Automatic annotation (TrEMBL):
<dbReference type="GO" id="GO:0071949">
    <property type="term" value="F:FAD binding"/>
</dbReference>
<dbReference type="InterPro" id="IPR044560">
    <property type="entry name" value="MOase"/>
</dbReference>
<keyword id="KW-0560">Oxidoreductase</keyword>
<dbReference type="InterPro" id="IPR002938">
    <property type="entry name" value="FAD-bd"/>
</dbReference>
<comment type="similarity">
    <text>Belongs to the 3-hydroxybenzoate 6-hydroxylase family.</text>
</comment>
<keyword id="KW-0503">Monooxygenase</keyword>
<dbReference type="GO" id="GO:0004497">
    <property type="term" value="F:monooxygenase activity"/>
</dbReference>
<dbReference type="Pfam" id="PF01494">
    <property type="entry name" value="FAD_binding_3"/>
</dbReference>
<protein>
    <recommendedName>
        <fullName>FAD-binding domain-containing protein</fullName>
    </recommendedName>
</protein>
<feature type="domain" description="FAD-binding">
    <location>
        <begin position="13"/>
        <end position="354"/>
    </location>
</feature>
<dbReference type="InterPro" id="IPR036188">
    <property type="entry name" value="FAD/NAD-bd_sf"/>
</dbReference>
């Protein structure tokens, strides 16, 4: 079966498919699971992500549901020092970040796509390329024996991307930290302010963020150990470890949030990232094949930019492809140039986010010696953290004039 564009999804793939639809290119998402996945309870979207969602035409569906944050606090449990984190004004409009349900975001994207865009239970076992009638074609051989031909392949297949491996990008590395995340529900309302709260202890960083007046998204990051593997798929054990071990010195308000967790939303994961120089000097595209989202730039969550950067990717990639169309058609030579421009535009941006996220996490969860405390409290928060946060500011641009979204691009 022949299609025009192929992707391996989650939020990254859905956003990419929608952005391509907006420029008139039909997309087929290959999803190895048997249904729409919503791994992870929620994600925080900063103004750069909302710019991308506006370009995709779905921002209005979410802004009416989730209020922006104007400020947050980071409390050092050992010293008692509290650092104010202002959010308003990062995008020039006064709006701060908003934390949204991951499933709500997925559904907002899916609603804009044709019903046959996603093919579930589809797992590629090999990738090949060859020339057909003067054009480069990618051939995907599927586990069920199906053969799919694509003019462009975009790997949105996550941290352990098969497409990234095929391109020759080096595998992501372990940061030495892991995270547990979840969604807490207070049926009668939690009664707390709409503010971001974070707490730092030696080797521990926790936080909770309200989504609305009844729900909180919470997280905890900690130094990894062999024992972490025992928690995979066992939410009750995860919560027990968080409450009795990892967060035992954290203020009771955080523990109360954790105790209200919806077990179906609680997850554990190691924090992986791609070394920035591997992305800068590595091959992120080859011919008509490239990667986006976590497949290109896995990063630690310390700046909250993993999902935001993936939305940027979707717009930048589709903008370049849309501008390369000739008479509504994808031409092999033109699309190769479009992918090269996309990677050139994204690699330094993504490398900066990877570096800033890792540095932020390393400083905030670093050792407790007086020198590290002095650097963190007197130098990092006062002079460096703001500059790192400024890296978040980014305008991915608008998509070119939309073609007929039902038109098949040959």
């Amino acid at each position: 079966m022949k299609e025009d564009m192929e992707k391996v999804p989650t939020t990254d793939g859905l956003a990419t498919a929608l952005a391509l639809k907006r420029v008139g290119v039909r997309a087929l998402i290959l999803e190895k699971s048997d249904g729409l996945r919503a791994t992870g309870a929620a994600l925080t979207l900063f103004p750069n992500a909302w710019t991308a969602l506006e370009a995709l035409g779905v921002a209005h569906k979410l802004t009416s549901l989730y209020a922006p944050f104007t400020k947050g606090y980071i409390t050092n449990i050992v010293s008692g020092a509290i650092q104010d984190v202002p959010f308003a004004g990062n995008n020039g409009s006064g709006d701060g970040p908003r934390t949204v349900h991951r499933r709500t975001l997925l559904e907002a994207l899916v609603e804009e796509l044709p019903i046959d865009t996603i093919r579930f239970s589809s797992k590629a076992i090999s990738i090949e390329t060859h020339t057909e009638e003067g054009s480069s074609i990618t051939i995907l051989r599927m586990e069920d024996g199906t053969i799919i031909k694509a003019k462009v392949l975009v790997g949105c297949d996550g941290v352990h991307s098969v497409v990234a491996q095929w391109l020759g990008l080096k595998a992501p590395v372990h940061s030495g930290r892991s995270a547990v995340r979840g969604l807490a529900v207070f049926p009668q309302g939690h009664g707390l302010n709409h503010e971001v709260q974070q707490f730092l202890d030696l080797g521990i960083r926790v936080g909770f963020v309200p989504l609305n007046d009844k729900e909180f998204y919470w997280f905890i990051t900690f130094k990894s150990s062999p024992k972490d593997e025992e928690m995979i798929g066992k939410p009750e054990l995860m919560l027990k470890e968080v409450i009795e071990n990892f967060a035992k010195h954290v203020p009771q308000i955080f523990l109360e949030v954790v105790r209200h967790s919806d077990l179906s939303t609680v997850t554990w994961a190691p924090l992986m990232f791609r070394l920035p120089w591997d992305l800068i000097f590595g091959q992120a595209c080859k011919g008509n094949i490239t990667v986006a989202g976590d497949a290109m730039h896995p990063m630690t969550p310390d700046l909250g930019q993993g999902g935001c950067a993936a939305l940027e990717d979707a717009v930048v990639l589709s903008r370049n492809i849309g501008n390369s169309l000739r008479n509504g058609k994808i031409l092999s030579v033109e699309v190769v140039g479009a992918l090269e421009r996309y990677v050139k535009e994204r690699r330094w941006r993504a490398a900066g986010l990877i570096t800033g996220s890792f540095l932020s996490g390393w400083v905030q969860q670093g050792r407790s010696g007086w020198l590290m405390k002095f650097f963190r409290d007197m130098i990092f928060y006062r002079f460096i953290f703001g500059r790192i946060v400024n890296v978040i500011r980014y305008d991915c641009g608008k998509l070119p004039s939309v073609l007929d979204c039902d038109t098949k691009v040959d």
